[in-house]
Write a structure and sequence with these properties.
Blueprint: H1 3-33, H2 44-54, H3 57-64, H4 69-77, H5 86-99, H6 106-125, H7 127-130, H8 132-153, H9 158-186, H10 198-210, H11 214-220, H12 227-236, H13 244-256, H14 264-278, H15 282-288, H16 290-313
Helix pairs in contact: 1-2, 1-5, 1-8, 1-9, 1-10, 2-4, 5-6, 6-8, 9-10, 9-12, 9-13, 9-16, 13-14, 14-16
């Protein structure tokens, strides 16, 4: 496969996964911003969290000058001039899909093209008419439909593997960043042991729902969400689809199945990270410090993404 084709497939799925992750992030921040803030402000800090996670807060402040709820939501969701917005992610996904129409199925193309056309209609109407929660649910639904069309219709060849690589490298990074941001924002409340800590309960629960892991948590653990349980679930449990461990297992599997010797650096790093998670306990993670561990692993995931790019996506 040509490196350009591989790159288009990889970024098509990565942009679509990113749009879904941004919608999840925005939905939970918006929901928490509507709750009583317990002396912590008026909810704008919560809405600013997605901007901090994506590194776009400075861009927002440069253009708008001050925090304003409606402008922040538009900037993050529908702003065509913000490359990190959901709008631009779906635009990028559609552009990459158009470039590789011959390598994806008709069902996949029709889904992603229809998503982009509907996105343009939503952007023209604005979030005020559509509703932020409804919009976020729509983004997640379109991503699910594309993933289902992909899994159900495309051959299990190189195209499929590069699509999966894009999905899971993006998902791993998102899980790490969301967990780190929520842990840092909770501060002392993150480690409170009292079951009457409403703030900790609702913020941890919101994180689990953002990662579609609330049901998994209630099935595996008893009691209220706590740092130890949350971190173990989202980092080390392989049966949880959005956990870091599940993402690394899939990345390792997809890379191992690609032919040729050029990808050995990426394959080796993926295998090392997979093994590290497989044989690490949550107590070891917490002893090192959760924020420190997460920050280090975010860099490792970035290194893996760079290794994939160098090995497969750069024109030789």
């Amino acid at each position: 496969m040509l490196s350009r084709t591989a790159s288009d497939l990889y970024w098509m799925s990565r942009y679509l996964e990113r749009a879904e992750n941004l919608a999840r992030m925005l939905d939970v921040s918006y929901s928490l911003s509507l709750m009583p803030q317990d002396g912590r402000g008026d909810g704008l800090d919560e809405l600013a969290l997605p901007l901090l996670i994506t590194g776009t807060l400075d861009d927002y402040l440069t253009r708008h000058g001050q925090m304003h709820a409606e402008r922040m939501l538009h900037f993050f969701a529908l702003d065509a001039e913000n490359p990190a917005s959901i709008y631009c992610c779906l635009q990028g996904a559609r552009a990459n899909a158009h470039a590789v129409r011959g390598r994806i199925t008709a069902d996949m193309w029709e889904n992603i093209n229809a998503t982009w056309l509907e996105m343009r209609g939503i952007a023209a109407e604005g979030l005020g008419r559509y509703g932020i929660s409804r919009f976020c649910e729509w983004v997640k639904e379109r991503s699910h439909l594309f993933r289902g069309a992909t899994f159900g219709t495309i051959m299990r060849g190189e195209s499929y593997r590069f699509i999966r690589l894009g999905t899971f490298i993006e998902r791993a990074d998102n899980t790490l960043r969301l967990l780190d941001a929520r842990y840092e924002m909770l501060g002392d409340a993150a480690d409170e042991v009292s079951d009457t800590s409403a703030r900790g309960y609702y913020e941890w629960s919101a994180l689990l729902r953002a990662l579609s892991s609330f049901e998994a948590f209630t099935e595996i653990y008893r009691g209220s969400p706590r740092t130890h349980k949350i971190a173990e679930l989202l980092l080390l449990r392989p049966e949880v689809p959005r956990s870091l461990r599940a993402c690394m297992e899939e990345l390792n599997l997809m890379l191992a199945g690609l032919p040729g010797d050029n990808g050995r650096p990426a394959q080796r790093l993926a295998a090392e990270l997979d093994a590290r998670l497989r044989y690490t306990s949550i107590d070891e993670v917490l002893d090192e410090g959760l924020h420190t561990w997460l920050t280090d692993f975010i860099l490792l995931v970035r290194q893996l993404g760079s290794a994939i790019h160098t090995s497969y996506l750069e024109a030789v």
